[in-house]
Amino acid sequence: MGTKVSWNFDNLLMGNVGKPLGLTEEAFSGALPQAQRAHEDLMQRRERGDLPFYDLPKRGEIVAEILEYSAEVRRRFTDVVILGIGGSSLGPAALQTALGRNPDNAESGPALHFPDNVDPFEFDALLGILDLENTLFNVVTKSGGTPETVAQYLIVRERLEHKLGDRYREHLVFTTDPQKGQLRQLASEEDIRTFSIDSGVGGRFSILTPVGLLPAALGGLDVKGLCEGAAFAAEEGTNGNISDNPAYRFALSLCLLRDNRGVGTVVMMPYCNRLLGMADWFRQLWAESLGKKIDLAGEEIFWGQTPEKALGATDQHSMVQLYMEGPFDKVICFLEVEDHGVDVVIPRIYPQKPDLNFWGGHTLSELITAEKHATEEALLQAGRPSMTALFPRVDAYSVGHFLMTLEIATVFAGSFLGINPLDQPGVELGKVLTKKRLSG
Ligand code: PA5
């Protein structure tokens, strides 16, 4: 079994961080009745089947199908390109960044590429280095009509057919809605292998559907471990006792900081490069789910809390000055790793120079951990709240545990605030106007 993530919220409390941002026990106890209602609401909606993301980790048959398909593909192709954007790219890319280079990862297979954006220079450069004979394209779009993904697909489809003739379809696999959309239609018309994204699971909650699991399997990641960690989080996340439920505690703390203390920004700051993709994934989840003009009652609320990302220790030399001395409007969510899997000893090569010799004998792991603790302590002394998610190791189980915890936190925050976290009306207008600009 893998390792679980543990959370520490102590540095959010008034008794530790003090004024002006510390949260009081009264603030928590005052919010408990509303939090309890939010919990009951989620449990009822889950029971009715309206929140299927909770139950995704337990579907062994999909995992088996994905593993069977990917075993064959991993032998056959040298490169796999994931064509998707937003929730159809951030999650799978984050998994690859976190776990793709783990020493316990399966034997080497194809290289994965996530172009994501429609940057012409980058996309052309990627197509320029690929040998289409040995490349598989996984086209991922729930709606089947997202402009960026459709455009990339059309470019790729033409080049594949030009080079491979009718064999082009062997180089495509679609991940899309089980019934609706243009991609689903093409799949049946052109006989292209397709995996379904469960109905009722939107882009940013789809990491445990084939959207995330297929690229994970193609990259040789431990898909079963990922699902086991997420299943554990789904179990833990249904505990109605807020203090024993890290997802609820995380969400409630951020909502109270926002509404009672004016904390409009949450910065996710891993002290581990492999976890930076998790911060990208979280930014979309928290921003797109909770940044809303209208609440469930139809009242204008303009709610939102801006999720940012920073990298420790790198951003100690960039952003931390602002976090320490700028406006009192931020909370930091540190991601700390206990065991990085490898370590590097700093040598003692200048015994006669005490300032240099001081570092010798320590390791990079000790250094990055000391830097995290020092920054946390400095922020605390400056009255700046923070919390920590501690990963014993960056493995599939801990990553699955972490992802599901934050998905539950997001729907809980939505319910607590009376916001629909599953829609994104604010992105529609841009799509309509893009099409208008290209027409005629
Ligand atoms: O979370 C969401 O719903 C969005 O970010 C979508 O994932 C994104 O717009 C891509 O949509 P689709 O998968 O339909 O191409």
Automatic annotation (TrEMBL):
<dbReference type="GO" id="GO:0006094">
    <property type="term" value="P:gluconeogenesis"/>
</dbReference>
<keyword id="KW-0413">Isomerase</keyword>
<dbReference type="GO" id="GO:0004347">
    <property type="term" value="F:glucose-6-phosphate isomerase activity"/>
</dbReference>
<feature type="active site">
    <location>
        <position position="317"/>
    </location>
</feature>
<feature type="active site" description="Proton donor">
    <location>
        <position position="288"/>
    </location>
</feature>
<dbReference type="InterPro" id="IPR001672">
    <property type="entry name" value="G6P_Isomerase"/>
</dbReference>
<comment type="similarity">
    <text>Belongs to the GPI family.</text>
</comment>
<dbReference type="InterPro" id="IPR035482">
    <property type="entry name" value="SIS_PGI_2"/>
</dbReference>
<dbReference type="InterPro" id="IPR035476">
    <property type="entry name" value="SIS_PGI_1"/>
</dbReference>
<dbReference type="GO" id="GO:0006096">
    <property type="term" value="P:glycolytic process"/>
</dbReference>
<comment type="function">
    <text>Catalyzes the reversible isomerization of glucose-6-phosphate to fructose-6-phosphate.</text>
</comment>
<keyword id="KW-0963">Cytoplasm</keyword>
<dbReference type="GO" id="GO:0051156">
    <property type="term" value="P:glucose 6-phosphate metabolic process"/>
</dbReference>
<dbReference type="GO" id="GO:0005829">
    <property type="term" value="C:cytosol"/>
</dbReference>
<comment type="pathway">
    <text>Carbohydrate degradation; glycolysis; D-glyceraldehyde 3-phosphate and glycerone phosphate from D-glucose: step 2/4.</text>
</comment>
<dbReference type="InterPro" id="IPR046348">
    <property type="entry name" value="SIS_dom_sf"/>
</dbReference>
<keyword id="KW-0324">Glycolysis</keyword>
<comment type="pathway">
    <text>Carbohydrate biosynthesis; gluconeogenesis.</text>
</comment>
<dbReference type="Pfam" id="PF00342">
    <property type="entry name" value="PGI"/>
</dbReference>
<dbReference type="InterPro" id="IPR018189">
    <property type="entry name" value="Phosphoglucose_isomerase_CS"/>
</dbReference>
<dbReference type="GO" id="GO:0048029">
    <property type="term" value="F:monosaccharide binding"/>
</dbReference>
<feature type="active site">
    <location>
        <position position="431"/>
    </location>
</feature>
<keyword id="KW-0312">Gluconeogenesis</keyword>
<protein>
    <recommendedName>
        <fullName>Glucose-6-phosphate isomerase</fullName>
        <ecNumber>5.3.1.9</ecNumber>
    </recommendedName>
</protein>
<dbReference type="GO" id="GO:0097367">
    <property type="term" value="F:carbohydrate derivative binding"/>
</dbReference>
